[in-house]
Amino acid sequence: MYYDEIEIEDCSFDEDKQVYHYPCPCGDRFEITEDQLKEGEDIARCPSCSLIIRIIYDPLDFE
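Structure for Diphthamide biosynthesis protein 3, as requested:
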């Protein structure tokens, strides 16, 4: 069960680490790497709590 579904455009992108972030209600941030998105993964996890979100994106943008 997802906490929420978020458009990739609403995430911030860390160019150095190639990671997309989105704020988590616990105070940390959900994370998903560009490589994960290229592999078709769409689940971003928070490293501090058990919440997960689904990232809505076009896989063709990551080919």
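Residues 30 and 47 are 7 Å apart (CA to CA).
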